[in-house]
Amino acid sequence: MTQEAEPKSARVVVADDQTVVREGIVMLLGLLPGIEVVGAAGDGEEAVALVAGLAPDVVLMDLRMPRCDGVEATRRIRAEHPGTQVVVLTTFADDESLFPALEAGARGYLTKDAGGDEIVRAVHSVLSGDAGLSPGIQRRLLERLAQAEPAPVAPSEPPDGLTAREMEVLLLIAEGLNNPEIARRLHVSTATVKTHINNLFTKTGLKDRAQAVRYAYAKGLVRPPAG
To answer: In whole angstroms, what is the distance from residue 159 CA to residue 186 CA?
Structure first.
């Protein structure tokens, strides 16, 4: 009987300008399964350089750092090294921090009170194509869109040639569900969910789940939560 191979650990770089905080995060990650810390940076410039040299899977990125802040570092990493994903890990949860980071290409957003399990989930979520966004962050994305412009009228037919099943998947993404949760809701396999997501992204020109949430609202497919 052949033994199954151990899941590959995610190679992670930690970027934070506070030495004590940075070393504490590195120490915590060293105790967690499925994570291998390959480097630590004290600012955005150093983070970009480490990504160029080490090609990590994920950067855990602080936002407010000297020389090059986390938003600019995220933008440069995603443009120059698209194989590396970025998960923001910051003290700040305000809109002025959240939305620029997501627009720069961050696929996840956590605050520093997140537990180790939550960090592991976020890292592996972005590597599997999901977004490391909590339902609360999804809600704020919709609320921000609602404040920016009037809610559009829902179309009578699915937009951009989406099938009924692709529409279902899109709406569940907008609810904040990840791929396994969508699979359970629709009683299909995770591989089937990924196929539907790839198809709807191709048809709509979307690149990630944060864009999918915006798209769902912009097309009138969902409405922002009341209150």
So the answer is: 21
Any idea which residue has 């009578």 for tokens?
A: 156
**Residue 137 Cα to chain centre, angstroms:** 11
What is the widest separation between alpha-carbon atoms in the chain?
Answer: 61
Distance, CA of 86 to CA of 59 (rounded, Å) = 5
98 and 72 in contact (C-beta within 8 Å)? no
Which amino acid is it at 18? Q
Helix spans in 81-176 (H): 95-104, 116-127, 135-148, 164-174
pLDDT along the chain (227 residues), means of 10: 59 95 92 92 95 96 91 94 91 75 86 83 82 63 58 63 90 86 90 92 88 82 60
